[in-house]
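Priority: medium. Attachment 1 of 2:
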């Protein structure tokens, strides 16, 4: 009773950065905290609330209750910012910059109003903000009972590479940290620096990281010793997304009643460990595949939804060279959203070709699936280094140094064959499976990650 009263006296406000991977992580964290009795307010502009709600997946019936417990708080940001179409010649989504800058400038006032409202009726208000939305920490410091923790949506090891690019762990494993200005745009680097200045303006208590010791234990030890503008507390509470059992159709009443994406029915018919998600050269590989084709996100959500059918038709046309394979049942092409978690958890999935966003890496490793790494921008080159060289559970499709060149189909096929049909591939798959088992043990009842989340809740409700 005392614990529940303490939780009720605390309001948690989660403030995501308005890009898909960041929205997801903060929503999963919100659901986990709400399931422990905390009053959690997920605060974002209305279009991004819709996006986060629409794309959250992988949770069971208990997860649906967690979702229902989260209080979605919409706020307006000034309109009028540009919404250019994606630039197909640029891997980095620079077309999103007007939205991101408008968010960081315009969300302060409505967020401040929400914090004042909650401050008046709670003992403590804790703001868990994406580190790229660090202005929220400044607003938390303005209320007398406010506190802030930064949520790091990248790998913990990324920060180690940032601070110590010649650290022993990097040197021993041959890891190369590519500086942000080589992986993003100067406009995004400027915004990141501005958010760093915001963090230094506020007294942030600590940092929450979507990772675990099975993935980055040595790096977490190093990170805990690095002085940070995010404070001295470090909570490693990943994976935030659910770790699923095999998603093959089982026929139980509960599973039969749950809607399933049509690509999972196709997976049910495939032999174990035979599928990987590919974006190129699938025909020449001779392997079974799911090819998930999705157009780039738009800054203007309404425009994105209105154009979805047009883009879907165009993407389907782009996959026309695979009609024969699709007709023979060798592969499936999904245009638009695909249930990535369920695909990775399926017993027929053997490996995952990925851009190596941190969410995708965590989800793939948590389900024991090796990665064919094809990084595009931002932290993705580092994540590819971590998976392929440190964890030993991935194959690099294209070296980052060759990012400006067209990757030939032969090189892609070689990466596939190395992962799937060689002695090296057997070792990769075994290593990924071992990592998946370690993560699964950590998230099980009594596992270390349950304790890590309990430690975070205890700190919030102290």
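Attachment 2 of 2:
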């Amino acid at each position: 009773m005392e614990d529940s009263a303490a939780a009720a006296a605390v309001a948690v406000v989660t403030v995501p950065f308005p890009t898909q991977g960041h929205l997801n992580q903060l929503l999963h964290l919100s659901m986990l905290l709400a399931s422990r009795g905390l009053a959690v307010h997920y605060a974002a502009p209305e279009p991004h609330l819709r996006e986060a709600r629409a794309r959250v997946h992988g949770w069971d019936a208990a997860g649906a209750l967690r979702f229902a417990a989260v209080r979605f708080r919409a706020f307006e940001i000034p309109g009028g910012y540009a919404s250019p179409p994606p630039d197909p010649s640029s891997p980095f989504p620079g077309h999103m910059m007007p939205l991101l800058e408008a968010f960081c400038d315009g969300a302060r006032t409505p967020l401040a109003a929400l914090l004042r409202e909650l401050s008046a009726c709670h003992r403590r208000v804790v703001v868990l903000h994406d580190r790229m939305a660090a202005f929220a920490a400044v607003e938390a410091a303005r209320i007398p009972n406010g506190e802030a923790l930064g949520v790091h949506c990248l790998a913990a090891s990324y920060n180690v590479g940032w601070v110590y690019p010649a650290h022993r762990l990097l040197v021993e494993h041959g890891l190369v940290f590519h500086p942000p200005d080589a992986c993003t745009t100067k406009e995004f680097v400027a915004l990141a620096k501005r958010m760093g200045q915001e963090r230094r303006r506020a007294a942030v208590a600590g940092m929450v990281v979507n990772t675990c010791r099975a993935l980055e234990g040595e790096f977490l030890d190093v990170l805990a010793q690095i002085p940070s503008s995010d404070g001295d507390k470090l909570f490693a509470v990943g994976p935030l997304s659910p770790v699923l059992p095999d998603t093959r159709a089982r026929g139980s009443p509960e599973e039969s009643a749950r809607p399933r994406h049509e690509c999972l029915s196709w997976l049910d018919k495939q032999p174990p460990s035979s599928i990987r998600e590919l974006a190129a050269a699938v025909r020449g590989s001779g392997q079974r595949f799911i090819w998930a084709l999705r157009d780039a996100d738009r800054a203007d959500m309404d425009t994105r939804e209105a154009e979805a059918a047009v883009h879907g038709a165009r993407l389907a046309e782009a996959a026309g060279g695979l009609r024969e394979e699709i007709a023979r049942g060798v592969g499936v092409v999904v245009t638009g959203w695909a249930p990535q978690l369920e695909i990775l958890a399926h017993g027929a999935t053997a490996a995952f070709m990925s851009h190596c966003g941190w969410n995708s890496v965590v989800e793939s490793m948590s389900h024991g699936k090796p990665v064919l790494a094809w990084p595009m921008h931002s932290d993705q080159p580092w994540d590819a280094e971590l998976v392929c060289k440190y964890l030993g559970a991935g194959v690099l499709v294209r070296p980052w140094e060759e990012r400006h060149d067209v990757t030939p189909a032969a090189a892609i096929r070689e990466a596939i064959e190395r992962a799937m049909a060689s002695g090296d591939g057997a070792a990769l798959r075994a290593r990924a499976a071992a990592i998946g088992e370690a993560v699964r043990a950590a998230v099980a009842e009594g596992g270390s990650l349950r304790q890590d989340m309990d430690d975070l809740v205890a700190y919030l409700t102290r």
